[in-house]
Each structure stands twice: as C-alpha cells, then as structure tokens.
Amino acid sequence: MLEFRSALDGHLSPGHFGAAAEPGKLILSERPLGALVQVGGWRDSFESVAAPLLQRFGFAGTGGFAMAQTAGEAIAFRTAPERILLNFPSPAAWEAVAAGIDQAATPTLDLSHARTVVRVSGPAAAGLLARLLPIDFDDAAFGPDRFVQSTLHSVGVLVHRRARSAPCVDLYMPSSFAVTVWEMVTHNAASFGYQVSGAG
C-alpha cells in the first residue's frame, strides 16, 4: 500500500493563533482519514444488492441522504441514489470486510488518498462554520450524525456533525484543494482565536 502523506503537510502547525481566546473555544485539526471507499451500483438493483453488503459491514442498510450511519468506528454516508461513502478507521479495517465483494454488482473505489478531513470543534465551531457555509448549524437543525454536501470557497465538501455533546464537525474535501480550504478556514477563525491540534 502507498505511504500516506498529508495534503496539509507543512501548512498545519500546532499552537494558538488569532485573537486571544479561552483554551478549547475553537480547535482546528486534521483527522486521520483511515480508509474512504465509495460503493456504487446500478439503479435497477442497487437497493437489493447494496443493503445486504452494508448489513454485512454492520450497518442497518443503505441509509438516508441526510443522516450518517455508524457501525463501531465505521461511518456510512448515502451521498446519491446509487452511491455510498464508507469511512473505516484504517485500511486494515476495510480490508477485513472487503473480501468477496462482487465488483460487477457493487463496484468500489478507494478514495483514501484523494480526500482530506479537517475537524472543527469547540463551542465556537458553529459560529465559524456559519461564516463559511450556507448551513444552519443550530443543534436542532444540524444535530449529531447529520451530514450535507455543500461548497466552501467553490470546493465541494461533505460536512458531518459528529455524535458528540460539544460541537464537532468534520469537513471531507478533495486533497488537491485541502490547502486552499485550510487557509480559508484559518483566515475566518482568526477573529475567534483558535488552537491547531496535531500536525498535517
């Protein structure tokens, strides 16, 4: 397997930046992606063949278009009528369940090296994200496990609210635009004051 190198390598430096703020109010980090696999299919048969496959992985079925499913540490996003994104904690976790998939019925595409995940967390997360995306980040409208596909600075992103009591949102984006998005996020975060946790 190819060695993973972060698209944010050299651009993500741990520390406190921007306006003075209480620790933990706004935290930006890169989340290790693990394995991200797209499962596709055909209109006439997708539900009948994909549902048993997802159940084999521990999910309830193919799921809906606004709520992510979880099975242990794995996450499933129904992003289109015949398309599901599966995020596993590691390539080994994906390989452990991938054997025997009928590629003709449910073709898979490994996107692990093509996507980057930036995490925005802390009490000020919703305020920052509201400046960046046309989404209502109130808990009642965008609660735990909700996800939506949108654009940030003309870059397509998948926005996922993690199931945590404190606001915690993951932004999945093409790795080729990760630096552009990171710079936009940190530029808007400066007025809040923010902490960068971890290294790209």
Percent of residues in helices comes to 10-25%
Number of helices: 4
Fourth CATH level, the homologous superfamily of the largest domain: Probable tRNA modification gtpase trme, domain 1
Q: Can you summarize the main beta sheet?
A: 7 strands, mixed
Largest sheet: spatial strand order: 1-12-2-8-11-10-9
Q: How many structural units, i.e. domains?
A: 2
Q: What is the CATH class of the largest domain?
A: Alpha Beta
Rg, rounded, reads 17 Å
Give a verbal description of the structure.
The longest helix has 12 residues, at 178-189. This protein has 2 domains: 15-32 and 113-197, Gyrase A, domain 2; 35-110, Alpha-Beta Plaits. The strands form 2 sheets. Strands 1-12-2-8-11-10-9 form a 7-stranded mixed β-sheet. It has a 5-stranded antiparallel β-sheet with strand order 4-5-6-3-7. It contains 4 helices and 12 strands; from the N terminus they run E-E-E-H-E-E-E-H-E-E-H-E-E-E-H-E. The mean pLDDT is 92. The protein has 200 residues and is of the alpha+beta class. It has helices at residues 46-56, 91-98, 125-132, 178-189; strands at residues 15-17, 27-31, 35-40, 69-71, 74-80, 83-88, 108-110, 115-121, 147-152, 155-161, 168-174, 194-197. The radius of gyration is 17 Å and the shape is globular.
